[in-house]
Amino acid sequence: MTASRVMVSGARPTGRLHLGNYHGAIRHWVALQAEHRCFFFVADWHALTTDYASPGAIGENTLEMVLDWLACGLDPARCAIFQQSAIKEHAELYLLLSMLVPVPWLERNPTYKEQQTQLDGRDLSTVGFLSYPVLQAADILMYKATAVPVGIDQAPHVEITREIARRFNGFFGDVFPEPATLLAESPKILGTDGRKMSKSYDNAVYLTDPPAEIDRKLSRMVTDTRRQRRSDPGEPADCPAYQSFHRLYCTPEELRWQEQGCRTAGIGCLECKKVMIPHVVAELAPIRERRARLTPDDARRVLAEGNAAARRVAVETMAEVRRAVGLA
Ligand code: SF4
């Protein structure tokens, strides 16, 4: 792989991917692999930071997610697709970095307190959860990433990684580049209930949903609440379906017709959505077809190859890190 930049990004093994995952990350990864040296990993250790008490589905979710990645167009010939827990060097680098990361850096991480409140019923006052940004830094720095493609909510994590790289280099010499944040321009994809699209909210449209299922879900998606009756005018700017899907998928002519029809109550919401839904179905058709041809063995083979490629780099980096720290 010849490339101008090294990109590293990962995702927790959540199983089947939905449209929010696709537009938020995977679509960008597919574009990046054409021009850069890319490492994409299944963050299975990260899944344990919040799901340590019920890790049952991690293995199966890993395979499902990798199959969806492949169906979306990630190409193992152009990027390394690997499993975090298969590269033990990540744990060693995490340990060494944790020696020099001040605890207040982790306590001020915005996600730390936010998730403790959001993920009710789980005890997240653990060392692993507090220090997951250190593990993320190890994941990124291991491959000497020059950029990390992320959504806006993940940007603070890259900033902590940069601070950790600076601190390490300050003590031990220039080992790690400071990775830039590569903010992906992503449309905000809401779920069918108007909240953020998420598997845990049961409001997602999955990449592998058959056309009838996509139709059923999107036909019921919430719209502008002012449109209680067919004769009530609405406002597309206040319509979750319009903001997430119509704007993304419909043609300018269709959008004009929808906006005008909505504001004058000239069309009903279902009529409006029936123009958008075939576009979503058409975009997902090739993904679903590729996915149907893949088997779990394909995911295992791709991961085995990706693990080997990632390990080659990780072994080299750790040899350099140990020398720098004085452990060689
Ligand atoms: S008519 Fe279309 S844009 Fe207006 S509220 Fe209904 S679905 Fe949304």
Structure, explained:
- By secondary structure, the protein is mainly α.
- Helices cover 55% and strands 8% of the residues.
- It is built from 14 helices and 5 strands.
- The strands form 2 sheets. It has a 3-stranded parallel β-sheet with strand order 1-2-3. Strands 4-5 form a two-stranded parallel ribbon.
- Strand 1, helix 1 and strand 2 (37-42) form a beta-alpha-beta unit.
- The two termini are 30 Å apart.
- Iron/sulfur cluster binds at residues 223-224, 227, 234, 236, 239, 241-242, 258, 262, 267, 269, 272-273.
List the helices and strands and how they pair.
Blueprint: E1 6-11, H1 19-32, E2 37-42, H2 44-51, H3 58-72, E3 79-83, H4 89-98, H5 103-107, H6 110-118, H7 127-130, H8 132-141, E4 147-150, H9 155-172, E5 180-183, H10 211-219, H11 240-249, H12 252-263, H13 269-293, H14 296-325
Parallel strand pairs: 1-2, 2-3, 4-5
Helix pairs in contact: 3-13, 3-14, 4-8, 4-14, 8-9, 10-13, 11-13
The structure holds iron/sulfur cluster.
The site of iron/sulfur cluster (SF4) has 14 residues, from helix 11, helix 12 and helix 13.
